[in-house]
Design a protein that fits this description.
This protein has 11 helices and 4 strands, in the order H-H-H-H-H-H-H-H-H-H-E-H-E-E-E. With 332 residues, it is α+β, with helices and mostly antiparallel strands. It has a 4-stranded mixed beta sheet, covered by helices on one side. Helix 11 links the parallel strand 1 and strand 2. Helix 3 packs antiparallel against helix 4 and helix 5 runs antiparallel to helix 6. The longest helix is centred in the middle third of the chain and has 67 residues. The radius of gyration is 38 Å and the shape is rod-shaped.
């Protein structure tokens, strides 16, 4: 996809959509309310703000960084945001409580760690969650509530990270397989379409060749010797077929008719296509072909050479006319 569409588990979950940003904003709003509820219990306020900011940074990184798996530096930053937020909040909250509000950095960090697993960084997610459990134990020891009492409520977060781990090892491979099968189907359809187009073009050329050549071949088969006008018709037909081979872009009805008419008058006509019109807009291409046909029709004697130039030239085509009056060169 040149810009190839990103196809992975986060895409399947809609993590690259506007809805994901809306949910992320609602989540941050919820965390802001929880942080504000601990404002009165904090001995200093700036660590609470810094803890909230660290969670915001983690959420933004999860949504902004598009590579999958998430690049290691970004994953480490997200994994650290939860423990850093916990450390900042615990440093100014003196007494552990069973209230969920005081452990808001741990819950927010666990959510971020779970999304790290979704983004293919399982180890970083586990390090983040276990670090937060360890910080809760440290907090309990420092405040006298006991390490076990403070850390046990945080162990419920292990269930969340465990589910995210199961997701990482089951859904992510399935998502990758689904998108690989989709890509394979797209390539197969493209190949079939190209083959059908090639076959259709072959059939068109066969019908055209049959229309041009069958009458003269029938005449040759049924006649012992060709008349002068029949020989002239063979030469004109040979020149027309040669034009279709080396001047494919010029093998259109108007140009072919003009070239045949000029050859009947004795003018030498040479058509060469170097594919400069392959990627030109239809209107511009038609303008060039109309001008070529007009120049060939206006040539009464001598020779005319029409060349479609290679791509990326300053001009698209050149017309060289030679007659008794000299040589005239025209660029289109």
């Amino acid at each position: 996809m040149s810009d190839r569409q990103i196809c992975d588990a986060p895409t399947m979950l809609g993590m690259r959509s506007r809805s994901a940003w809306a949910l992320g904003g609602f989540f941050m709003f919820d965390e802001t309310i929880l942080a504000a509820s601990t404002w009165g219990d904090a001995t200093r306020h700036w660590p609470i703000v810094a803890a909230l900011l660290s969670i915001v940074i983690a959420g933004v990184l999860i949504l902004v960084v598009r590579s999958d798996p998430m690049p290691l530096p970004a994953a480490v930053a997200v994994a650290l945001c939860g423990p850093v937020g916990c450390a900042l909040a615990y440093s100014v909250l003196s007494v552990p409580s069973s209230a969920a509000a005081e452990s808001w950095p741990s819950a927010a960090g666990t959510v971020c760690a779970a999304f790290l697993c979704v983004r293919g960084r399982v180890l970083a997610g586990w390090v983040g969650v276990l670090s937060m459990v360890g910080l809760a134990a440290w907090w309990g020891s420092r405040t006298g509530a006991g390490a076990l009492a403070a850390s046990l409520p945080q162990l419920v977060n292990v269930a969340t990270i465990l589910m995210a781990t199961v997701f990482a090892f089951t859904i992510r491979p399935a998502a990758r397989l689904i998108f690989e099968l989709e890509d394979e189907a797209t390539r197969r359809i493209a190949a079939e379409s190209a083959a059908a187009a090639t076959l259709a073009e072959r059939n068109r050329q066969m019908h055209r060749l049959d229309h041009l050549v069958r009458p003269i071949l029938t005449t040759i088969a049924e006649t012992e010797s060709l008349q002068p006008h029949q020989r002239r018709e063979c030469r004109l037909l040979e020149a027309q077929l040669r034009d279709s081979l080396r001047g494919a872009a010029l093998a259109v009805p108007d140009v072919s008719a003009a070239a045949r008419s000029a050859r009947e008058k004795g003018v030498e006509v040479v058509l060469v296509d170097d594919h400069g019109l392959d990627d030109v807009r239809a209107a511009e291409k038609q303008r060039i072909l109309d001008r070529v046909a007009a120049e060939i029709r206006d040539t009464e004697v001598g020779s005319v050479l029409v060349r479609i130039l290679p791509p990326n030239r300053s001009a698209l085509a050149t017309i060289l006319v030679k007659n008794a009056g000299g040589i005239r060169r025209l660029e289109l």
